[in-house]
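Lecture notes, part 5. Sequence design as translation. It can be helpful to think of inverse folding as translation between two languages: the language of shapes and the language of residues. The source text, in structure tokens, appears below.
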């Protein structure tokens, strides 16, 4: 980390085999990184290596393969701990992804601690994964879900948030960086204000984890969640970070093997953290290869990757703004390398199909944020999102393809 690999995007691209494929006869231009990022060869190789050399179930085995698999699994936990600055490795729970992590908190914490009339606050920018679990538990417990409003550009109304907070507020669950618009929310302020009322705060870090330096101790969030597949890692694995004293008080989410200390037909005692929340055989292979994904980011350095992405963001933003009738939503200073836009008279889906014909992968639609789209009064946007391996040349290809597509659509 102290001596990052020098940033040469051409060399970096060579680590990603998929970037060399063709789509519809054209070089792939992959601009859907906010949905999932591509995987470097060290991640792919580590997955094959695990299944080829030391596939075994973890923690309970007394043989070499089980020892090796357990050591690699626990090494991934420490890598994640360091990646997000957690105080203790047992504060890192492996899950299926952001969605499961939020559901665990809503269900486990919510079922134990929410009472009728309590209030939960989310924001207008949330992904469905940070809306629905809270609606479900609120309905079950008779709690009230409140939503922080925003302006037409997606900036949260912090005055309204401040007024919304009261002794009744028990939980604030907030998207750190908007997947739909790329906006970085003022989470330090959100957390501090919530804590003044003794409310807990969960940050949905699905989009922030790969772009921003994350230090959960400094942020002082109570929970932080993210998915492996958005940080150059595998699908099917994610992380729930929680402060130890909170996780200790929360009941288990799933019951079964691994999460127990002792079982009799009369009574079960639960295992300690983190195993209390990791019932059954976990996704061993994909947890293990989170470490090479994190190593990849650390090798290049988050700051270097971010500087590169900011250059792409600035260039693409200025080029897109030259297109007649195109409007960027979430056009603010404080954002990551995501650009969401609408074009007058053009349906985003038609545009996506034409771009795909030219080898360009973008995302269109509501981006799993239907209430946000309703608030903006639109059906959806076209979203381009950049990663470490994207280039200025790819932006040129995108802009040329957009001009060509618009000639056909208008
Ligand atoms: N939250 C945000 C902000 C996201 O961008 C996503 C995925 O797009 C999710 C939650 C859900 O993540 P996953 O589908 O990996 O559980």
């Amino acid at each position: 980390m102290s001596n990052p690999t020098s940033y040469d995007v051409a060399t970096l691209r060579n680590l990603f085999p998929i970037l060399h494929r063709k789509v519809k006869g054209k070089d792939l231009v992959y601009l859907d990184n906010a949905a999932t990022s591509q995987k470097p060869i060290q991640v792919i190789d580590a997955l094959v290596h695990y299944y080829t050399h030391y596939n075994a179930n973890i923690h309970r085995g007394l043989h070499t393969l089980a020892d090796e698999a357990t050591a690699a699994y626990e090494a991934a936990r420490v890598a994640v701990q360091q990646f997000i600055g957690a105080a203790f490795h047992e504060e890192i729970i492996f899950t299926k992804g952001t969605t499961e992590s939020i559901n665990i908190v809503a269900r486990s914490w919510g079922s134990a601690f929410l009472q009728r009339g309590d209030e939960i606050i989310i924001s207008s920018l949330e992904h469905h994964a940070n809306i629905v679990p809270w609606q479900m538990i609120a309905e079950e417990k008779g709690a009230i879900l409140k939503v922080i409003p925003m302006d037409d550009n997606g900036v949260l109304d912090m005055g309204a948030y401040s007024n919304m907070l009261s002794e009744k507020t028990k939980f604030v669950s907030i998207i750190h960086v908007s997947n739909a618009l790329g906006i970085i929310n003022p989470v330090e302020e959100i957390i501090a204000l919530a804590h003044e009322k003794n409310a807990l705060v969960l940050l949905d870090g699905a989009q922030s984890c790969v772009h921003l330096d994350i230090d959960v101790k400094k942020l002082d969030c109570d929970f932080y969640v993210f998915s492996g597949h958005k940080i150059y890692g595998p699908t099917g694995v994610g992380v729930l970070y929680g402060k130890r004293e909170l996780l200790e008080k929360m009941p288990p989410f799933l019951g079964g093997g691994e999460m127990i200390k002792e079982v009799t037909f009369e009574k079960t005692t639960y295992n300690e953290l983190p195993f209390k929340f990791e019932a059954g055989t976990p996704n061993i292979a994909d947890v293990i290869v989170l470490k090479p994904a994190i190593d990849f980011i650390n090798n290049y350095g988050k700051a270097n990757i971010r500087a590169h992405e900011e250059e792409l963001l600035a260039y693409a933003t200025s080029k897109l703004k030259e297109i007649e009738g195109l409007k960027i939503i979430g056009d603010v200073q404080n954002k990551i390398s995501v650009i969401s836009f609408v074009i007058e008279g053009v349906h985003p889906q038609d545009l996506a199909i034409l771009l795909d014909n030219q080898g360009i992968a973008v995302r269109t639609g509501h981006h799993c944020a239907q209430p946000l789209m309703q608030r903006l009064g639109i059906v959806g946007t076209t979203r381009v999102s950049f990663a470490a391996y994207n280039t200025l040349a790819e932006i040129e290809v995108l802009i040329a393809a957009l001009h060509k597509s618009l000639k056909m659509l208008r």
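The translated text above is only one of many valid answers, since several sequences can fold into similar shapes. Residues 209 and 226 are 7 Å apart (CA to CA).
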